[in-house]
């Protein structure tokens, strides 16, 4: 393969990656504004400036678009958790930073929280979609478990629950706080959030 051919191939790959990202960005905007069921592939294509065919070239369905967005959202959350766990900072600092980051993201992305509730209900009624969603969540759980194990390697203490139970509790608690914050944001949720994290993670010092 000549240098020119390599450049052309790379350019095609770059263009394909850019198109995919444009479609995800457009889907995120449409989902936030219209909700999952209120959004169509046509609207996403129009928002992105592409044809409907271009959407289907990269994504098999509207659900596939959401699941890719979910993957990016979870990856960002996991990165924050892993970085703080690996920082070597006292667990009180880690908990404080986790709480600040969680509620900052929740405030900025309330539409995402609403969309997630809507999609979870949708997935409950469609077995194939539910299985894909479960795989995403379980991958996130495994990544949290790994971060906890790495932190525990530098601690002489044990957590009050198993690593698996702790990771699942953290994910479940976040989902519960998401729901309650959407319905009753006047509650002192940051205080509760920090208190529960202390119960789960204090032994990591």
Automatic annotation (TrEMBL):
InterPro entries given in the database record: Homeodomain-like_sf, HTH_TetR
Cross-referenced PROSITE patterns: HTH_TETR_2
The entry's keywords: DNA-binding, Transcription, Transcription regulation
Domain (HTH tetR-type): residue spans on this chain: 17-77
DNA-binding region: 40-59
Gene3D superfamilies attached to this UniProt entry: Homeodomain-like (1.10.10.60), Tetracycline Repressor, domain 2 (1.10.357.10)
GO MF annotation, one: DNA binding
PANTHER family linked to this entry: HTH-TYPE TRANSCRIPTIONAL REPRESSOR NEMR, TRANSCRIPTIONAL REGULATORY PROTEIN
Official protein name in the record: Transcriptional regulator, TetR family
Species lineage: Bacteria, Bacillati, Bacillota, Bacilli, Bacillales
